[in-house]
Amino acid sequence: MIPLSWYLIFAAALFSIGLFGVLARKNAVAILMGVELMLNAVNINLVAFWRYQRPDIIAGQVFAVMVFAVAAAEVAVGLALIISIYRRRNTIVADNIDMLKL
Amino acid sequence: MTPLQILFILVAGVTLGAAFMVVTTRNMVHAALWLILGLFGIAVFFVLLDAGFLAVAQVIIYIGAISILMIFAIMLTRRIAQDVGSQISSGWGWAAGVSLLVFSGLAWMLSRWEGFHNQMPALDPGADPLIDLGKALVSPAGYVIPFEIASVLLVAALIGAIMVAWDKI
Known about the structure:
Order of helices and strands of chain B: HHHHHHH
CATH architecture of the largest domain in chain B: Up-down Bundle
Order of helices and strands of chain A: HHH
CATH topology of chain A: Helix Hairpins
Strand content of chain A: under 5%
Oligomer: heterodimer
Radius of gyration of chain A: 17 Å
Number of domains of chain B: 2
């Protein structure tokens, strides 16, 4: 059978790849994709801990459902912001969005 | 090696490869398609973990809604999607370093935990996790308040998204 460690190491690797995307990508949509990968890694962890540690308490799955809802809200607002910025500045390269900088 | 372990390794390899392509490929539409492949792999993991509802929700919400939204955003900012030149910023070296550091730190921390090599306990044959989840989400003794707050958050986020992306202000 599959030990818990496999899931945890997989989720850690997925989280690190997503982190690299967030830190290294120029395009704002690609940064959001990296955030999605990180959220999915966290979800895998939540469900794996639920299944291996306390399958009698359903809270692990409920929490994963909450993460789904928050991720959907985050993507909707993030993409709306990106489209709004593109309309005004004609760019979505994160380095060029520096209106708040003095 | 049981067949389940071989399946796990295959799916994990495909998912990590797809995730790597998401963060490195130059064409943004291709990145979105690789993201869809990676999200399918994660849905397979939810099935392996006996969380069937989450696997279906993953396919419907992430692949059906979020990925399509991403592709729409990429198409609406189309000039960027066909950008020539690198899509990775010049400081990618330290970004890779930080990612490797986070991964090794997580792996080290997890390997010190005594439950790291736990095997999957058998599910109570009388209990159905799907029924439990459904009851927990709507029973006052369970999680009905967080559930309702999550729906209010979604409505607020969607109205906010419309307001932010509105053309005339």
